[in-house]
Amino acid sequence: MVKNRHNIKIRQHKGDRVIMKNKIFLTLIIAAIFSSGALYAEENYNLTDLSSAIIPYVQLDIMCSLDSFLDENESAQMKLYSEELAPFYKDILYKKYSQDPWGVSIVNFCTGGMGSLINGNILSGSILQAGFIASYTFMVLGMMEQDPTVKSTDFLIAEIGAAVFGLAGIAIPFIEISAYNKSLKQSLNL
């Protein structure tokens, strides 16, 4: 007999207790089976396979972070390390260090080459910056000019310069990042 909160005696069926004991017993058996399976798997795990995969992975990770694949000698060294590495790990490294040109192109278009500078492409970023500054300089000169023919010529130069350097700011990252990703892929033997 069991009492509830209103002190009313409730008769508990003997069958309910048996079912509860069976559920507890079944749960303990399942836990024991999974525990022994986990112990067996741990005993049979070969740590030499793990260390042979980690060493080249870590070395390649360091080399990728330093952009070593852009240098021919270091790229050859990376190819040697990547031969020992499983394709799964190569894909992880490629996804980690490959770049997407869309973000750089959008920033270049909006800021006149700052995306390339931030991405580390100093030459192309500087050229784009100089082109945008020159086109805006012609625009300001056109606003200050009194002669209508010179004024229209300055505005025309400014518009052409903005269009050319705007399109170059969009196209250049696709060219540079494509070459960057290709070099990374070759160094990882993908």
Number of strands: 2
Structure classification: mainly alpha
What percent of residues adopt helix (DSSP H or I)?
A: over 70%
Mean pLDDT: 75
Number of helices: 8
Beta-strand content: under 5%
Main features:
about 190 residues; mainly alpha; two-stranded antiparallel ribbon; 8 helices
Description of the structure:
The protein starts with a strand and ends with a helix. α2 packs parallel to α4, α5 packs antiparallel against α8 (148-187) and α7 (122-144) packs antiparallel against α8. Helices cover 80% and strands 2% of the residues. The protein is elongated. The protein has eight helices and two strands. The protein has 190 residues and is an all-alpha fold. A hairpin with a 5-residue loop joins β1 (2-3) and β2 (9-10). Strands 1-2 form a two-stranded antiparallel ribbon.
